[in-house]
């Protein structure tokens, strides 16, 4: 499938590139150092209409497609992987399930503020005993009259305490595994929601990651998302699309590593010549560029399928798997191009290497992506 990037998409991407280059990139080193949440940049993304890129205008979105969304995530993550992730999670892990499975009232009440940037979203699924095995969650939701009472602890939640709206997975039927799971839209201000651990991370340090604790949180039944007992399917469908965003993030990080490597290789002189003159360096750069292009092709294909409402579980898993592995390899090679300087904090490539690693882990580890792909290609 050939994916054309239209003149209109190019124009939007040029606007995002300008914002990313002029306002995000100069802050990336400091954001990494301090691990501060870049609230002003998130507000600016909202002003630019980036917090609701793929949602219809009637719900406050920009009415664009998933291909454009993925290319915007790449562009933002090329400047700073945390800034791109904050926007990506808001859209693909919180806005998207409400858009796909929500009632009209839920969309008006929750999707609109998420898409305009008036509120920030998160997905709270992972628990201490339930990571890859997402059906093993222990958070419970007990029906009491017209409400559900939620109890449990979610860990490693991106956008954590900064978020206002959470998609929370909980067991409405303790005896059943995946079929006993229901998704709920939970508001931060609901009594009983609190935040504990704020994680110190290896990379994406400007992206807040916290635990979300639910203690007797009363959620009205109209906040059930996608029907009682359908939560596993809602969440898995959400992740099918979400993985396109993580592939885009990985590509953005790898592109930053390549662009920094190119500039450095032209400047750095050894043996009386720029190191870019050495074939060994040229081949490394050529491999990096080829790998990035291959990953982008997979990502665009998955996004284009999604735009056409064609199931894309296999393609998005392939894109995330390939792009994550690629980003880890490309950023490691970038450190190599920089030699000893690459290992030092004052140069950006060690940050790219630390940022890249997470793309092999979240939204399903790359081992789990291989299982998803294997199931699809081998019917296992
Ligand atoms: C920075 C960060 C942000 C995150 N953000 C969110 C978020 O916003 N919301 C959310 O809900 N979660 C989030 N997560 C959680 C993340 O999705 C999980 O960490 C991830 O899915 C892996 O789960 P786990 O950490 O429990 O590892 P485990 O599942 O314990 O896996 C450990 C190892 O075993 C392997 N493994 C497990 N099962 C199998 C199997 N069947 N076959 C082969 N290998 C297997 C894994 O690949 C991995 O290598 C985040 C995590 C991090 C680190």
Describe this structure as you would to a colleague.
The protein is an alpha+beta fold. The chain folds into 3 domains: 7-119, Orthogonal Bundle (Butyryl-Coa Dehydrogenase, subunit A, domain 1); 122-229, Butyryl-CoA Dehydrogenase, subunit A, domain 2 (Beta Barrel); 232-378, Up-down Bundle (Butyryl-CoA Dehydrogenase, subunit A, domain 3), CATH 1.20.140.10. 52% of the residues lie in helices and 16% in strands. The protein contains 11 helices and 10 strands. It has helices at 7-24, 28-34, 39-47, 66-79, 81-101, 104-116, 231-267, 279-307, 313-338, 349-357, 366-378; strands spanning 121-124, 140-144, 147-158, 165-171, 181-187, 193-198, 209-220, 224-225, 269-270, 273-274. The strands form 3 sheets. The chain has a 4-stranded mixed β-sheet. Strands 2-3-7-6 form a 4-stranded antiparallel β-sheet, with no helix packed on it. It has a two-stranded antiparallel ribbon with strand order 9-10. α1 (7-24) packs parallel to α4 (66-79). The mean pLDDT is 97. The chain binds flavin-adenine dinucleotide. Flavin-adenine dinucleotide (FAD) binds at residues 122-126, 131-132, 156-158, 201, 209, 358, 361-365, 367-368, 371. Residues 122-126, 131-132, 156-158, 201, 209, 358, 361-365, 367-368, 371 line the site of flavin-adenine dinucleotide.
